[in-house]
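STRUCTURE REQUEST FORM
Protein name: HET-domain-containing protein
Source organism: Hyaloscypha variabilis
Requested output: structure tokens
Priority: standard
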Amino acid sequence: MSLHIWRVLDKAWNFKLLPIGFGFFSQIRQSYHLSFGCWLHIVSQDIQSHSTLSATYETKIQYLPLEESEIRLFILYPGSDEDAVSGRIEHSSWGFNSNKQYEALSYVWGDVRDSVAILVDGRTVSVTKSLETALRHLRYRDKPRTLWVDYVCINQEDIPERSKQVARMGLIYEQASSVLIWLGLATVNSGVGMEILRYFATEKRPQSCPVWQAYPQSLVHQGLLDVMNRPWFERMWVVQEVGRSHRAIFFCGRDCVQWSTSSIDVRRFIRMIKYAEILPQWTQLGLDTVNMRPLLEMLDFQDANSFSKPWGSCDRAAPDLLDLAYNLRYKKCSDPRDKIFGIWGMVDYLWHLEDFKVDYSMTVTQVYEEVARVSFSSHYG
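Status: completed
Returned output:
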């Protein structure tokens, strides 16, 4: 929640109030910050406490083999904040003829050593703290939620399966009803940043007094910086995950920003950001120091999926593997091979190369030698 009065002096005092928890075993508490100058701003901040599940008896997920036309889905059980995160895995037919509805999660894994326990099929299993926090916030209180989550829906220890599923990820995200983008917990500043993104995503045209001019300068700068500096925007995989989505939703704690990915809506979203960035007021507020490029890049790929498909057409050519890898070379991933595999689903002609597939048994050197081969082939320029 937020309440503000237009500032007269750009001076603020900030006090952190005592956390408020609902339920003795609640993992999520609310910490409130009070800021004031000649304006007043009250915000809530999520606080993550320890997992309610003991990690003493952790086991591994018991995976059954996947058929060629199957994917796994995670049925996230409903629960309140004090309940442990739990769900089950089920196999589902996959492809354009499947009528199974699911949402795909886009998030940062985080440090795999920083793990907590959840219940999967009644077994206590270890997942990254980042994933557990996302699932805790995204689950419904009164009904299950069907998700595709790479960490639990792919047997990460089965290299052939992992290779096949990663090669399909572009289509998995494209066929999802929504892509849920988990940016992390809310902070004292994130609410203003999310409100600015919501303005860009939902307004039909620029307003005479945009939301980023309605708050004190210090709040606007810190809020937008808080959201846009989230690690999610640095990841290689998110370009494909959002670029192929049909509907996307940012989540920052309980706060969300959603937009339709129709070509008209996405192009309007892009133009709203670009228009704001050329305004003198944007620079005067110091907002030109906030890097909006990662968001614009993903929206650009999302614009009509930004590439040709064999079952349709659009007014933009398919991207070349080398050009795409070069433009996104600054993106982060823990495995150097994922600099290539992470953009696989955006380069259509790779599907037709029987001798170059996503294969985690290949060494890093072999992967990049294949990039050189297909990029300099006479068939592809």
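Reviewer notes: Confidence is low (pLDDT under 50) at residues 1-12, 20-29, 306-313. Residues 70-176 form one domain.
Form closed.
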